[in-house]
């Protein structure tokens, strides 16, 4: 139970970090461009750890964390790579962000279909947020602009936040 609560709080904190990063990309893209590599690396590693904690927790529906072991390992490796790149090109970092958001949204599309089979009414919102995030992820890959990255990070944070809120039930 403690592990599940840690995972839920961790997901909410990562969602907040996505909101903040998204707003920073929109409001001050130059600052994010200079400091984005370090922030992205740390955020990816933290997100990977939280995903792995979620995977090993006892979730009632087993929906929110079902793909998180492999994703967690992938995110930690991606975070280490982001931190180790000496002179990143902004376009590559944005394309990587787009791929990450696209991958995450594809997995949430699958989760939304599983939620529908469970009879959860929220599945439509999971599907909506995941398709929106996926489209924005593809747009980042193609256009590579900080504004779109900011909007995509806001959508990704909203998708994760809503899904964890609806699917992870912690009994008192």
Q: TL;DR?
A:
With 172 residues, the protein is mainly alpha-helical. It contains six helices and no strands.
Q: Care to describe what's here?
A:
With 172 residues, the chain is mostly helical. The chain has one domain. It contains 6 helices and no strands. The relative contact order is 0.18. The mean pLDDT is 86.
List the helices and strands in order. HHHHHH
List the total number of helices: 6
In total, how many domains does the architecture comprise?
Answer: 1
Contiguous low-pLDDT stretches (5 residues minimum) are: none
**What is the strand tally?**
0
Largest sheet, if any? Answer: none
What is the percent of helical residues? Answer: over 70%
Structural class determined from secondary elements:
mainly alpha
Q: How are the SSEs placed, and which strands pair?
A:
Blueprint: H1 2-27, H2 29-55, H3 68-84, H4 90-118, H5 123-143, H6 146-167
Helix pairs in contact: 1-2, 1-6, 2-3, 4-5, 4-6, 5-6
Properties at a glance:
172 residues, mainly alpha, 83% helix
